[in-house]
Amino acid sequence: MPQSVPFDIPYPARISPDLDRARQHHLEWMRAMGLTTGEKAIRRYARWTLSELAARFYPTAFAEDLELAADAIGWFFPFDDQFDGAEGDRRDAAHAACGELRAMTLRPAGTPTRLPVAVTRSWGNIWTRESLGMSPSWRERAAADWREYFAGYAAEAAVRREARPIPVEEYLHIRRATIGVKPVLGLAERVQHCELPASLAAHPHLDQMRNLVADTVTYANDVCSVEKEEARDDTFNLVLILQRHHLTRRSEAIRHIQGMMADTIHRFEQLRYALPALCRENGLREDEAAVIGRFVRDGMESCIRGNYDWQRESGRYTPADVIPGSRANYLEDLVTPSPESRRRTTS
Fold this sequence. Notes:
- The chain has 347 residues and is mostly helical.
- It has a single domain (19-192, 200-340), classed as Farnesyl Diphosphate Synthase (Orthogonal Bundle).
- The protein has helices at residues 19-32, 39-47, 50-57, 63-81, 88-104, 118-131, 136-162, 168-178, 181-191, 198-201, 204-231, 238-246, 250-273, 275-281, 286-311, 339-346.
- The longest helix has 28 residues, at 204-231.
- The chain is globular and about 55 Å long.
């Protein structure tokens, strides 16, 4: 697996000192939420070291804040795997759960799910905790980011069904939703106590920076995961797109992605350099401008660097975790309602 492919990331490696506490809490939470119940699934999940990813994403989060972060970051991966190779009833169940998750973002936090399966119950728990103490404008933005993330799975599924060549820009547009970076950055505001000023939070300048962060995570992820996806005949990967539609060898495709990473970080730094002037133009106070600086440093930079460092060490991208397309890739089925819950829903 190409975990050792280097990218030039100009930000320091950082990690929260409360990692051990968060890790212990998170594994217990995963079991309590029904996301990992069998011993085989628990062992495989533990090798992915997702609490470490949360601690790298949010280096200034501590105690209950980092526990929430670990639960949210850990939730993404078993959820995403529900869609790998899903066919027939399983595919329908995965997309039904995705639809319910979108609907849940439109209801008040804490409202019980109308489709009680593991992914919806657990996400409802996260969303209730994530929303606590946040402003209405933040909750509106964060809910929209989650909806975009959930809706992206339908776009991915459509491309896979069509089995057509997909241009790089179209691919990146879809991945900016499904890579999950926007909800990750929204969570940074919550767990690192740096909620953005409402007057600038949704400004196109910051939105462009968010998209660039998402692109960097996609580049690193797709290089790390290319052999996993190739083993499952899944061509929705930037390396494979460059190889198959631009007639390049793998080494050339990876070098091209390394160049894309450098260009993207350069554009990100240009936008970052322009932030003080943007704050002045929009009349932000000094303390409000400082919050934006913290968000960029502790949220965006840490997302770019933390993802890269974690992927180079995580067991999720080792040969032992490669599952052929003939076998289910998910840890456990988290989207199919039990017969009892079906009866409750229809009664």
